């Protein structure tokens, strides 16, 4: 059974950077499409980015384009989300999710495997 664990969150000033990691156990993450989602306080969970199992087919929501980058390290069974030029509105719990999809999507209902999340707080 594939399990996911996120890490790398923290407190950062506006304009700063973080790299989130999503490590998989119990399976080979390169066989799965992976997506990142986030949930801010009092708001619904929203999609951030996704990557197909091949590593291609990446997508980003408009609010993070040119600031966030999703990538994979298959040797480490890990997917990363690089967050640059962070803004206070990026504050949220960030979750990774995986599913055996040929093409990744930004629809959370397509994913059945989820991590517990990592908190990102952007504040001066």
Walk me through the topology.
Layout: E1 3-7, E2 10-12, E3 18-25, E4 33-39, E5 46-51, E6 59-60, E7 68-73, E8 78-83, E9 92-99, E10 113-114, E11 118-122
Parallel strand pairs: 2-11
Antiparallel strand pairs: 1-3, 3-8, 4-5, 4-9, 5-6, 7-8, 9-10, 9-11
Question: What does this 3D model show about the protein?
Answer:
The chain starts with a strand and ends with a strand. 33% of the residues are buried. The chain is an all-beta fold. 0% of the residues lie in helices and 47% in strands. Strands 2, 4, 5, 6, 9, 10 and 11 form a seven-stranded mixed β-sheet that branches. A four-stranded antiparallel β-sheet has the order 1-3-8-7, with no helix packed on it.
Overall average residue pLDDT: 96
How are helices and strands ordered from N to C? EEEEEEEEEEE
Instruction: Pick out the low-confidence regions.
Output: none
Distance between the termini: 40 Å
Radius of gyration, whole Å: 13 Å
Described by the principal axes of the CA atoms, the overall outline is globular
Helix content: under 10%
* Count of alpha/pi helices: 0
Largest sheet: 7 strands, mixed
- Work out the oligomeric state of the chains in this entry: single chain
- Tell me the fraction of residues in β-strands, as a range: over 45%
How many β-strand stretches?
11
Structural class: mainly beta
């Amino acid at each position: 059974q594939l399990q996911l664990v996120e890490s790398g969150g923290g407190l950062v000033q506006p304009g700063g950077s973080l790299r989130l990691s999503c490590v998989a156990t119990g399976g080979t993450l390169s066989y799965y499409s992976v997506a990142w989602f986030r949930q801010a306080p009092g708001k619904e969970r929203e999609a951030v980015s996704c990557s197909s199992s091949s590593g291609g087919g990446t997508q980003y929501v408009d609010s993070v384009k040119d600031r966030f980058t999703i990538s994979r390290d298959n040797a480490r069974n890990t997917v990363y989300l690089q967050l640059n030029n962070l803004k206070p509105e990026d504050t949220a719990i960030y979750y990774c999710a995986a599913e055996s999809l040929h093409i990744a999507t930004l629809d959370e209902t397509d994913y059945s495997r989820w991590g517990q999340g990592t908190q990102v707080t952007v504040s001066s």
